[in-house]
Amino acid sequence: MNIQFHKPYSESCDQNRDPILEVIKPLLTEKISVLEIGSGTGQHAVYFAQKMPHLIWQTSDQKTYHEGIKLWLDDTDLDNTPPPISLNVSTNTWPNQSYDAIFSANAVHIMAWYNVVDFFKNAPKLVNKGGLFILYGPFNYNQQYTSESNARFDIWLKQRDPHSAIRDFEALDELAQKAGMTLQSDHALPANNRILVWEKT
Ligand SMILES: C[S@@+](CC[C@H](N)C(=O)[O-])C[C@H]1O[C@@H](n2cnc3c(N)ncnc32)[C@H](O)[C@@H]1O
């Protein structure tokens, strides 16, 4: 039997990639290496790597996502997107390398809270001094949703997996501070999403 694997596609990636790019491009002009956590389809990686050719954009995700990411990387055939690395934030598979920035989109509301704790404990260790930790997604502030649509999304997330949830900015910032990161900026994006940027000080 010949099973063909289809290239995965996320419509939301196409919708959010330009607003994300607008925020992260000026932050990454002086940077060289970026590690992406939870690359998913790989669409963000190829788009951002194309638009910022001075960067080496390293994709990563759990093994099941690799085939799809590789299809996107192969189709674009860029010089600055090495093959994905296998990385679960809660296992001992963190690369033995440092990066100028870590980027992750829409991952911390999918992971269980203990994964988020592991993520924030381990990722900053890989960031060079002056480097950035950049998260995109929906966040709550003072345990309040920022919109009705985020409240509905949170219900949907929890029905799908009771360990998933929109995370509180304050709880994430506390984890980041413990790991030696200082909040540099917080940007409003379309569809009630945000980009949080911490700097390794
Ligand atoms: C909703 S998808 C987002 C994918 C992509 N970043 C995007 O914005 O379209 C959530 C991602 O988080 C990743 N993820 C969930 N738990 C993880 C873990 N423990 N370690 C690493 N990645 C994880 C999933 O594998 C998936 O790629």
Lay out the secondary structure.
Elements lengths: L10 H17 L5 E5 L5 H9 L4 E3 L1 E2 L4 H11 L8 E2 L12 E7 L7 H10 L4 E11 L1 E2 L7 H13 L6 E2 H10 L2 E9 L3 E8 L1
Parallel strand pairs: 1-2, 1-5, 3-4, 5-6, 7-8
Antiparallel strand pairs: 6-10, 9-10
Helix pairs in contact: 1-2, 4-6
The site of S-adenosylmethionine has 20 residues, from loops.
Shape: globular
Order of helices and strands: HEHEEHEEHEEHEHEE
Percent strand: 25-35%
Q: What is the CATH fold-level name? A: Rossmann fold
| C-alpha termini separation | 54 Å
Secondary structural class = alpha/beta
Mean pLDDT: 96
Please give the oligomerization state of what you see: single chain
Précis, in short:
Helix content is 35%, strand content 25%. It is α/β, with parallel strands linked by helices and 201 residues long.
Structure description:
- The protein has a single domain, classed as 3-Layer(aba) Sandwich (Rossmann fold).
- Helix 4 runs parallel beside helix 6 (169-178).
- A hairpin with a 3-residue loop joins strand 9 (181-189) and strand 10.
- It has six helices and ten strands, in the order αβαββαββαββαβαββ.
- By secondary structure, the chain is an alpha/beta fold.
- The strands form three sheets. A six-stranded mixed sheet has the order 2-1-5-6-10-9, with helices on both faces. A two-stranded parallel ribbon has the order 3-4. The chain has a two-stranded parallel sheet with strand order 7-8.
- The structure holds S-adenosylmethionine.
- S-adenosylmethionine binds at residues 10, 13, 37-40, 44, 61-62, 65, 87-90, 105-107, 110-111, 115.
- Residues 10, 13, 37-40, 44, 61-62, 65, 87-90, 105-107, 110-111, 115 line the site of S-adenosylmethionine.
